[in-house]
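I am writing to request your help with a piece of structural work I have in hand. Thank you for your consideration; the sequence and its tokens are set out here:
=====
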Amino acid sequence: MWSIITGIVLTGTAFYVSVLYKSSSMVVLGYAGAALLVMACVFLVWRVRTIACSVTFPIAIAECTKPLTVRIVLENRSFLPCQRFQCRVELGNRFLKKKKKRWLRGGMAESGTNSFDYPLIMEDYGSYELLLKKVRVYDLTGLFYMQKTVKSSGFVQVLPNMQEIGVHLTEAVKNFIGEADIYDEHRAGDDHSELFQVRPFQNGDKIQSVHWKLSARLDDLLVREDSLPKACPVVFLLRYVKEKQRKAEKVNAYLVILASISFSLMDSGCPHYAAWYSSSRQDVVRVRVDNEESLYQFLSCYLEETFESSKTDLLEAYEEKYRGEHYLHLLELDEQLRLYKNREQIAAYHIQGWQEKLNGLELVL
């Protein structure tokens, strides 16, 4: 729009100079400028009505400090090509509450759907939202433009790198028994609500375990084995609260530490609950982690949080919500990078040298 205003000012100046100095050449220049402005305005109004623009990420998960592709899709519903356009995008990290704005320049867009890819590097971990707010389209001369307001967004997550730390599980943790909706695939138990397997009768089996109906149908003595619930002996509480100024280095360290602990517990065969207080839901949220899929689900959910200030005691709220459930060990990590085990501090990390200290961590559970 400013280019059109500038053109109007220059055209008016040309007419003023022609009157002031009685110059016929300036009159011709003024009329030429006015004609160009009228044609540009008509063309741009028509062009704005015939284009649609959106933004997306072809890949929804990215790696930190490595190039990521941002795709602008421009649909040109006219028969004339769009010579030039610019998109105003805003990139925001939900966890860090940090935003960046920039213009993405595009070349010729022919009739139909056109895709334009741009490299973008994410410097911090977190969940990013890319908002496309404005599109500038230019006339055929490339001198004048008009803006169109657009509402389109794309989402991508930069998951923290995970370091393997030492985890030593005691027999109490390995053989922990409790209630769960997930059952052991390799061991039988005493949960009558779920069948583990049916096998032939062996010496030493109890007569109460015989599956009489199936035995009568198959004319063979068969035994029913019940399932063993895979309960979580460890609860991992994430005590991240709102800070006045969130430093990227500190937040990145926090995310790597929590991801590394959860990954190492999972990798050692220790199912656990990762829990935190969600400001958006105003409630305690927890995710069971016992395989890679659930680990990435936990990290994905956690990175979506914004963490406003709250006076809620996380442990008290957790035990109130999941009253009656038992666990053996409680791990806690706060925003000051302090790690607790059963309410006792076992590690404290600082911005400088936290990677080396994390590598030397040994968890005995």
Q: What stands out?
A: Residues 24-49 form the longest helix (26 residues). The chain has eight helices and 19 strands. The mean pLDDT is 76.
